[in-house]
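Table S2 (text version). Query chain:
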Amino acid sequence: MPRKSKGPRLYLRERRSREAVYVILDGKNEVGTGCSGDNRSGAEKALADYTGKKHRPAWLSGHPSEIAVADVLAFYGKQYAPSLEHPELVGYHLTPLLKHFGGMSCWEVNGETCRSYATRRMAGEVGRAVKSGTARRELGTLNAALQFAYTERKLSQPIPVTYPDASPARTRWLMRSEAATLIAGALGIAAVAYDIKSRKPSKWGRLHQPSYHVARFILIGLYTGTRHEANLSMRWA
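Corresponding structure-token output:
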């Protein structure tokens, strides 16, 4: 019996003596994206464009049992996500969501399948293991996509999404002095002398070569609050 196709998906093609590139695998076909290994967001856009051109969803009836979750996510990613402040985050969320919900209809999105997604996501079965907060945010993207499809009359009725329990609220935040020490460390600067009474640094010195890219990464994260995966995919200037 022939194996069931996994549908179009991204694959990082590593090449000897050349830079790795993202390609789209679709059955026996391989389509180039033109995106190098450090441009995941561009590859996600290329996959969305490829999928949109290949497949035309049947919105006619609008009944959730006849509309695929993959079509709703693709519609949301193409029509609404570009207007968001951080559209690249939607691309990161779509990858694990499609691995779990991609073969389902919208009618199959219920408490059981949502709880199963959270469990599998936190166990690392659909991408790397994450905490419940990340699974909640990804299910929030699914909820936004379903609500957008309903608002746009692609779905005849709203589909509720069940979330895992929220993580405890953060009670400890990085202080300004701690952030400064973190950046100084990336620049090779560390305390070399301390005041005996206050136990605070009294003299600083450069102990090793600065890592400017690390300092820039820290600054971008501190000022934008963007998660590290999105920071790493940026083209820094």
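Notes on Table S2: The CA atoms of residues 65 and 108 lie 8 Å apart. The beta strands are 9-15, 18-26, 29-36, 189-194, 201-206.
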